[in-house]
Specification:
single chain, alpha+beta, nine-stranded antiparallel sheet, four-stranded antiparallel sheet, 18 strands, ARPP-1, ARG and Rhodanese-Phosphatase-superfamily-associated domain-containing protein
């Protein structure tokens, strides 16, 4: 399990990226990724701000940094007070000081009910179950375009059948945020592989560890935690070790880790030849492209052939 080549298509240069020890929390498995950093990219929480909601399906984001381009994460959304909650269908590149209006955003709260209090404002990433659909809807100016899918998701989770994503993100927040405490963000980590119930769910790469740390909760709790919560298995009793000494215990632990790593590696998608990458926009030497094919989809930002940001997930 030493390469990401099956997930990111050529000609992207993945030299230097390496995976760590898998961590598991119920149905959710996370494998940390380390690799070369690209400093100078403005992170999403401390540098990127939701300036205003212009109207249904229309939001403005602002890069408040004095220097540095901001990479708007794919499927970024905001829960806020006194305006409808929205999520974006695409990633984007914003220059320092730039304000950009997105007219193809998805309203994720059908009707006026369900506003949260101001103290509960925060950002999220769309749950895995909605991401492929939202990406296909980019460019379509229809604020209600994701409501049928949100309604179906709520129904599948035993919640009222309406297009309110907050029924999951807010009312189940205490349950979902447990994944943040049960999984550990490793020092220097700038990405992760996510698996739900033994199936590949997504690959996330950030420009540097600081950027990824700001994305951590949104990814673990919401982008992948929702599917993991729904697939949560019954907890099995822990198997005791038969070691009679500290050396034997260490050997058993090493064997367990190796077996676990081999098992997780077997969950990665097989190499495919029909993965396509189409450029969507550019800023200086940064190129934002959409990836499709072989049961995968998502977006990648590359610079001189090196990935700077990636969010590629199973096309469900």
């Amino acid at each position: 399990m030493t390469t990401l080549d099956t997930l990111l298509p050529a000609p992207l240069d993945l030299d230097g990226y390496r995976v760590g020890t898998p961590q598991r929390a119920g149905a959710l498995t996370m494998v940390p990724i380390h690799g070369p950093e690209r400093p100078g990219i403005v992170p999403p929480r401390s540098g990127l701000k939701l300036k205003r909601v212009v109207g249904y399906g229309q939001v403005e984001l602002h890069n408040g940094a004095r220097e540095g381009v901001a990479i708007v994460p794919l499927h970024l959304g905001y829960i806020q007070d006194a305006a409808q909650n929205h999520a974006l269908c695409s990633a984007a590149l914003l220059a320092a000081g730039q304000t950009r209006r997105f007219d193809d955003a998805c309203c994720v709260q059908s009707g006026q009910g369900g506003y949260l209090e101001g103290r509960d404002q925060w950002f999220f990433v769309l749950p895995l179950e909605l991401r492929a659909r939202a990406l296909r809807l980019r460019g379509r100016h229809d604020y209600a375009k994701l409501w049928p899918d949100i309604t179906q998701l709520n129904r599948a989770y035993g919640l009222p059948s309406r297009g309110h994503l907050e029924q999951i993100l807010s009312r189940k927040r205490a349950t979902l945020t447990q994944f943040q405490s049960r999984l550990e963000l490793v020092p220097g980590q700038l990405g992760a592989l996510f698996f739900v119930g033994g199936t590949f769910a997504g690959l996330e790469l950030a420009p540097d560890a600081g950027y990824f740390a700001e994305m951590w909760m949104a990814l673990v709790c919401f982008a992948y935690g929702v599917a993991a919560w729904h697939a949560e298995p019954e907890r099995a009793a822990a198997r005791p070790y038969d070691a009679g000494s500290l050396a034997e215990l260490r050997a058993e632990l090493a064997r367990d880790r190796a077996a676990r790593l081999a098992e997780v590696a077997s969950w990665l998608p097989a190499p495919g030849g029909d993965v396509r990458m189409v450029e969507e926009e550019r800023y200086l030497d940064l190129r934002l492209s959409t990836v499709t094919g072989d049961g995968l989809t998502g977006q990648v930002v590359a610079e001189h052939g090196r990935p700077v940001y990636a969010s590629v997930f199973a096309d469900r």
